[in-house]
Each structure stands twice: as structure tokens, then as C-alpha cells.
Amino acid sequence: MPATLRLTMAQALVRYLCNQFTVVEGAKVPLFPGVFAIFGHGNVTCLSEALEAVKDTLPTWRGQNEQSMALAAIGFAKAKRRRQIMVAASSIGPGALNMVTAAGVAHSNRLPVLLLSGDTFINRRPDPVMQQVEHFGDPTINVNDAFKAVTRYWDRIVHPEQIISSLPQAVGVLLDPADCGPAFIALPQDVQEMAWDYPEAFFEPAVHKIPRPRPDRDRLQEAVKILQQAKRPLIISGGGVRYSGAEKALAEFAAKRGIPLAETIAGKGALTHDHPAHVGPIGIVGSTSANALASEADVILAIGTRLMDFTTGSWTAFSQTAKFISINAARWDATKHRALAVVGDALETVGELADALGDWTAPAAWTQKGVAEFAKWNAMLDGFQKPTNEPVPTYAQVVGVVNANARSRDLLITAAGGLPGEVMKNWRVKEPNTFDCEFGFSCMGYEIAAGWGAAMADPMRTPIVMVGDGTYMMMNSDIYSTVLSGHKIIVIVCDNGGYAVINRLQNAKGGASFNNLIKDCRVKEPFAVDFAKHAEAMGALTRQVDSLADLGPAIEWAQNNDRTTVISIVSDAFTWTPGDAWWDVGVPATSERSEVREAHASQLDGRKRQRVGV
């Protein structure tokens, strides 16, 4: 008989996680280096008992909110470029549901996180338990079923032996470049406590390496033929380039072949801003340079991108006749929008494509056009960022000062609101992989939590988190978490009086300003929050600055501090950096407002430019 260990299901689960390893930069490291957890009904007895026993091997960090701690795990995964994975564990009921939004972030952005939630009793003897949501027609359903819509892998353990098959499957999904995303496992309370004789072999140390699938040879040759006939090729570099570690290979490929290279939101930071092939960000929050080239390109080489509407300008950024080649580890993403799907790892595929192309290069005139358009864009940026005598600075000016004072390896983090567009355009990347803008799910509240996770991932650099006042008010408690844990971040709060960028969209489509800026909400009287004092109450060092001239010295002061520092500055709510592509949104077909009727007519005209059949 094979040797066995008698453990509770929770103890066995934790022991398995402790024995999973991976290789990063040639070094063997834990695949799961830590757990974010809030203990409560459903996990405070069994799972916490198992985690306490290994607290020096698998550290547990207490979050302030289940959503934010799962977002911290996602920020960690991004900073590690999907090579190591954090665990987020919650109680049942509201604790679990708080993590659903974070699961959506991970799912949309193809990022790994292992979510463990407490669950109700399988034996149903004490039903209904506290926090249990009952379905009258199906007693097997509870709140944990909500995760099915936003996870790549979902399971509920109803017998202690089941983790022997479930956990390897979860790890397989977390490490698969094609299916990567969140894995969720529900842990019923009575099953967590059950003891079972587990085979010792289940706990043998395992070293995992992320697979690199090679492209199909015939598809690769088709791609070569299309590229060799191209007169105006354009590369779109997505997040998959960074997760594959293909930054250097792609940078060399684009420069040698003379192909202009634009970046998506997830892809920004694969190249430095001044790389000779770089032409800026593309799409709705993109640059005039990249969007101008996209409109003329005859072949689009899309690498590691899912081609979301913010990249494609809702499919108006390209000509009707442009051909697409899509290199992607995920078949789902590669086969979108009539593209020639070349399914494979970005690093391996770019290398094989470079070899197969021989001496081919893009026409010199097209290469030079990319250089010229990007030069014009940089001159525009200099103008947008130049200080003026206006009493309230614009986002562009604030971003310019923060960028200028950031150290080369500092990691910029932002997410929803007006800042993604402004940093996409105005932030000039100094070193690869120093930029994180979560805009696949556009999740308000990601920023500060992700900063905590990113600080854990790399203590040798400082995350600089830029948030608007609306996002800060939505989720700020992990400032306290970073103070408690000693993981320093710098937070820049741009206070523009509410949800300014949504007010912009509301106005742009003919709507009156309503319920977005604080002054336009149903309030007794507008009130300005003192963000510096609020953050100070959570233990951060803080400073309120009143001008651009004060912002630079404040950032230098923050960089030399020994703990999390929050800087607040009032920012303009109405001035935005241009360069946007068109965006398809719903606009009322009829309205009493003439502005809305005009906007609807304009929207219909815009839809005429969308590519057919995509």
C-alpha cells in the first residue's frame, strides 16, 4: 500500500500549495508565495488553522476588504508577469461575493489568481446557516455559483478526496497561457474539517514551467506571405507580449524590419517610449500618431491582444481592406475579426516569423512616416504638459510632472476614470514593464490595492499609484494595509470634483451634466474631502500640494520616505489630451434635448465607418 498522511481537507489543500514551485530568472521559487485572507464564517476554523501552521512558509496577509485583497493578488500577478500566483481566501456569503468583481478583473485581463471561499454545509443538517442564500427550487445553489461567470476554473469540493484531482486542474489553468485566468474553489465547512488518508505522493514538490506552444507551420507561412506583400504594415503589441517575455525579441524584430509598433493598454510598457519603432498607444485612449498610421495600414500584425473596442476604435480605426494577422496563445483571441490566426506563444512565434521572413523589410518611406508622426506627437505632448498660469493644472500637466520625477524602475499603476487615457498618452515609459493600467475591466478601486500587491512582488521598486478622487473614495483602505505590512507605495490623488471623465462622455453625447461631478449631484452642498488628512489617519505620510511647482518636490520627498505616502492635488475636470479614436456607445434615438438628437445622428454616421463583418 502506498504511504499516506491523515489530514483534514483544509490541511491537505494548504500542504499541496506549499509544495508547488516554479522557476523565475533561473531560480526555483514558490508558485504560491502568499495568501490574502479575511477570516470569517466558513473559513476561520479549518482553513485558518491550516494556514497558521505554515505561516512562515506560506505567509498570510490580512486585507481590509475581500475585493481589494483579491485585486492586490491580481496586481501581484501583473507585476510578476503571471509567473507567480497569490491566493485570496474569503468567508461565505458577502465575503465571497466581494471577490466576484476582482474575479472579473482577472478574467478580462487573462490574469491568474486562486480564489478560495468558504461554503455552506454539504450535509445540509444546520441549513440555513448564517449568510446562506437559499434557492427554493435548487438547494445546491449559493452565492459561490456567481463565480462561474467570471472564472476559468470553478469547483466545489464535496468530498475531501476531490482535491487530489481538482487542485492540479486549477494549477493547470492558472499557468496555461491560452486559458489563463482566475481559478475558484468553494470549500464547504463540513468538508474542510473532514480527515482523509491522502497519498504522500500528492504532496511531493513539483516544479512548474509555463508552456510555450509553437505556431502551426502552415499558418506561419501564410503570415509570411501576407507580410512580404505589405506596403504599410503596423504592429499592435498587446499584454501577451509582456506575459510571454517577448519584449526584447519584438523590439528587435520591429526595429530590424522597419515596422511601426503601436501599443494597447495592456501592452504599453513592452517597449520604452523612445524605441525607434515605437509610434505610441493606439485606439480610443491612443495617440494621433498611432491612429494615423492605423488608418492607412494595409496589414496589421496583432500580437498578444484581444483587440477590444478601445484598441480598434470600435472597429473604425482601420481601413475596410486592411488584413489582420493575429499571433496569440489563445485560440479564442487569435480567431477574432477575420484575422489569420497564428496560435502560439509570442516569444516563440516572433522568433520563427523573423527567421522565415528572410531579408524582408517594410518600405523605407512607411518606416519614416512612423518616425515623423511620432515626432509630431511628442511635440504635442510637450505642449500639453507645459506649465501655464492657469490656477488648476490639467491631468496632462500632472502626469508630466509625476513622470519626470519618477525613477526609471518605478511602476506606474492606474485604472478607471480619466487617468487611463491621460497616462496612456502622456506617460513616457523609461524601462520596460514599468506600466500597469487596468482597463480591460475598467475597475475603479484596482489601483491602491494593486499597488500593495505590486510592492510585494518587487521590493526593489516603488509603485506610483495615480487615482482620481472618485476612485479614492470607492476603495482606499489598502493604504492602511501597506502601512501595516510595510510595503511602501506612493499615491497621487487627482481631485477633480467627482467622476469627471464620465461627465465628459455624458456631455459629448448631448446629455446634461448630471450625477457625476459632485456639484451636479443631489447634495445639500458641495464638500471637498481633505484626502491628505484622510490618508494620514490611516498611517500614511501625506501632503496637499497647491501647484505644479510644489508637486515635483513633493514626489522627491515621497520617494525618500520610509512608508506609504499620499499626495493630493486639485486637477482640472474639463481639459483632456486629444488623440482619441471614435467610440461606439448607445445614444438615445429620441430626446427632448436637441444636443442628444444631434449626437445620435453623429453616432449613426460613425457606425458607417465600422469594418464590415467584425
UniProtKB/TrEMBL annotation:
Thiamine pyrophosphate enzyme central domain boundaries: 220-353
* One of the record's GO molecular function terms: 3D-(3,5/4)-trihydroxycyclohexane-1,2-dione hydrolase activity
The portions of this protein that span the membrane are none
Pfam families in the cross-refs: TPP_enzyme_C, TPP_enzyme_M, TPP_enzyme_N
Per UniProt, the keywords (alphabetical) are: Hydrolase, Thiamine pyrophosphate
Please report the stretch or stretches of sequence annotated as the Thiamine pyrophosphate enzyme TPP-binding domain.
417-569
Annotated InterPro entries: DHS-like_NAD/FAD-binding_dom (IPR029035), Myo_inos_IolD (IPR030817), THDP-binding (IPR029061), Thiamin_PyroP_enz_cen_dom (IPR012000), Thiamin_PyroP_enz_TPP-bd_dom (IPR012001), TPP_enz (IPR045229), TPP_enzyme_TPP-bd (IPR011766)
Disordered: region residues = 594-614
Gene3D superfamilies linked to this entry: 3.40.50.970, TPP-binding domain
EC?
3.7.1.22
What residue stretches are annotated with the Thiamine pyrophosphate enzyme N-terminal TPP-binding domain? Answer: 35-131
Instruction: State whether keyword Transmembrane helix applies.
Output: no
Q: Which family does it belong to?
A: Belongs to the TPP enzyme family.
Kindly provide the name given to this protein in its UniProt entry.
3D-(3,5/4)-trihydroxycyclohexane-1,2-dione acylhydrolase (Decyclizing)
What is the organism field in this record? Labrys neptuniae
The taxonomic lineage of its organism, from the top, reads:
Bacteria, Pseudomonadati, Pseudomonadota, Alphaproteobacteria, Hyphomicrobiales
